[in-house]
Fold each of these.
Amino acid sequence: MKIFRILALVVSCFVAVQARAGEKPVPPAATEELKVLIERQRALLAEAAKKNTRAEMEDLRAPFQELMFNYDDYLKKYPDVAAGYVSYALLLNQPVVDQRKLAAAMLLQANEIDPGLPLVKNQLGNYLAEEGRPLDALNYYLAAVKLAPEEPLYHYQIGTLLTEARADFLKSGAWTRATLDQSMQDAFEQATALAPGNVAYAYRYGESFYDLERPEWSAALVFWRALEGKVSSELEKETVRLHQANVLIHESKFAEAREVLATVKAAPLQGQKQKLVAQLPEETTK
């Protein structure tokens, strides 16, 4: 999820809090003041994204430092507003600021104030995953899904974690490869179903067929052929065909793979195409 969408979700924390019966309402002034900080944060991050060198970034050091001071003042003024800690944590976690431990402390404080915010659970999961604690990270991701089962990102995070930290989960003894594979693929499938227009989620679900202990090549081919009809641009269609060709090669259907690869003409895809061509037996390339 891009940082700008996350920042938008921070504002929704106010709505989530006030929608729950019995929760202490957030003062209107706190909402408005945080919106101002978030807009400044959004603008500064957008400006930082345009910079190409460390020297250019120096021009933004002072504005970022000032924003951090403003967040400190805000939290002193509104110490019980969880969304303030979340927004500040997102700033601290950016590479241009790079204060991840302090960011995690802010998230833990937000979680203590309001344990019902899925965004906070997700961000804590991210931190723990980056710290090499995947089993702890999974607990937070699962908590995020429980609170917001319709948010595709949280399912996607689970699938990614189970894939990248597979060895850790298997070593724990609490998982078998079969249950791990099933949970991983279910998570990617759910993310895709909840965000049918998100091509990145769809690609990752398609690739999950390869990640299984026994790759399901036939099912993968069915998926990629169906996806070709759903994507709009020619570049996306050709990218999908590269996946089709990859599957066909693994199924030893070399003639079909060659036919599919012949339709991939986009310049940005030629490197990937040639890698697949190199896997074809010599007689199929004549």
Amino acid sequence: MLGLGFPYSPAQVGLTLLTVGVPTLSLTMWARPEPPDPHLLANLGRFVVPAALVTAAAGVAVYAYHYTTLLAGPPGGEVPADFVARFEDWTGLSADDAGFSEAVATIGAQTALSTFVSYAAFLLILFLKPPSRLFASWTRPDGDRRPALLVAVLVAIFTAGLLMPWFTSYFGLTEAAQPVFTTVLPALVVWFLVLTTAYRFRLLDRALGLTELAGPATTGR
């Protein structure tokens, strides 16, 4: 929609093994038997919709910033030779080929977006199963530390993968670069604060007039 290339390649979609597959399987195995929730769909929407909207908005901002920055090139106009060589390897194109600049901007922005969304997905587990009051904006901590340990393991695996050429090559990413993290980490802080506010003050409920329904944040489920 923004005309800034396509935000994901098929290989990058494979990262959902870490962001969706493993967390879903683990949380399902650890789930405790509970009575049916009479407001299941409403509560599901309360969790998913704010997370989707905030993550999508932040992801678009991260992607657009990196795409436009890379497409414009360095401020001085001179591109280091090693920088060009690495992007030639990542894109499979020569610097003299038509579309090289767009390919550079696309793969760089895709790497930033995949990095941001992956870390955000891991942190969402802490909102769903908070280990402490810091993340208890959606529901109260239940004393189960396994989800927090899972998050730590997933963050460690993904971060280590960004430093390994075989991992980044397989998923169609660039190597871990300072410009990515100088954007992604602040974006994650903003994302966390906005999502915490949305959950804690039940902004979706207020916008839709659903404040009369009890939710996990008040019932402790």
